[in-house]
Amino acid sequence: MEKEKIKRISKEWFDAGIFALVLFLIIRAFVVQAFKIPTGSMRPTLKEGDMLLVSKFWYGAKIPFTGFSLPAVSEPKRGDVIVFLYPVDKKRDFIKRLIGLGGETIEIKDGKIYVNGRVVDDPRITSRFYYNRGPYGSEGEKIQVPEDSYFVLGDNSGSSHDSRFWGFVPKKYLIGNAFVIYWPPNRLRLIK
After folding, report:
1. Which sign, positive or negative, has the C-alpha torsion 155, 161, 164, 170?
2. pLDDT number for residue 5
3. Catalytic residue chosen out of the listed positions 41, 149, 160, 163
4. 163 labelled catalytic
5. How many other β-carbons are positioned within 10 Å of the β-carbon of residue 135?
6. What is the enclosing helix (H) or strand (E) of 169?
7. Cα separation values, 192 from 33, 82, 123, 173, 181, Å
8. pLDDT band at residue 85 using 50, 70 and 90 as cut-offs
9. Average confidence score pLDDT of the chain
10. Closest residue by Cα to residue 70 from 24, 34, 32, 30
């Protein structure tokens, strides 16, 4: 009797563990994923050690091992903080602020961002000074963002390895939208 009870309880725990693992994998693949910030390239928005959640479904989660994605809730917008596969080394994830969309012309002049010849007026972008650096960020140079790609910059422009140096983020490398810092507790907030 006691043996059967132990066997039944063990099976229940095993089944619950398998269910929890499958549920975790589904949530991680399609809904939300946790990331930790390793560098200061996004200061002051994100600091080293911040742990945040990234919504994968917002832009249309990729279905693992296929070339397909789920339908998106929204398209990426200028000013969003996005996580993507680093175009130079696709084994690494990067996080930056989306500045330019496919088909737009970007210019950095006097610390400001110009899109299609007009200064950007989004406070998430205008509150920062952007430096002219790298082959895609030289003074007076206008950069055409290819279709299905993005131009991204770190909020800490003086210390960020971003699109100014390595170019554009193809849309297919997009992982998701960073939306909340959950750790440490004193930094708990929505990401703007």
Report:
1. negative
2. 77
3. 41
4. no
5. 11
6. strand 169-170
7. 18, 11, 10, 22, 11
8. very high
9. 90
10. 30
Is 96 a catalytic site residue?
Answer: yes
Shortest CA distance to 82 belongs to which of 69, 99, 95? 95
Listed residue (182, 185, 184) closest to 55, CA to CA: 182
pTM, rounded to two decimals: 0.84
Q: What Å distances lie between residue 160 and 21, 69, 79, 165, CA to CA? A: 37, 30, 16, 9
What tokens does 62 get? 């990729």
Domain made up of 31-190: CATH architecture: Ribbon (2.10)
Q: In angstroms, rounded to a whole number, what is the distance separating the alpha carbons of residues 160 and 95?
A: 10
Expressed in percent and rounded to 5, the helix, strand and coil fractions of the chain are: 25, 30, 45
At residue 41's C-alpha, the angle toward residues 39 and 42, to 5°, is: 105
Task: Tell me the C-alpha distance between 123 and 172, whole Å.
Answer: 28
> Which amino acid does the sequence have at 133?
R
Check 55, 56, 62, 96 and give the catalytic one.
Answer: 96
| Percentage of the residues of the chain whose pLDDT score is greater than 90 | 69
**87 and 167 Cβ atoms separated by less than 8 Å:** yes
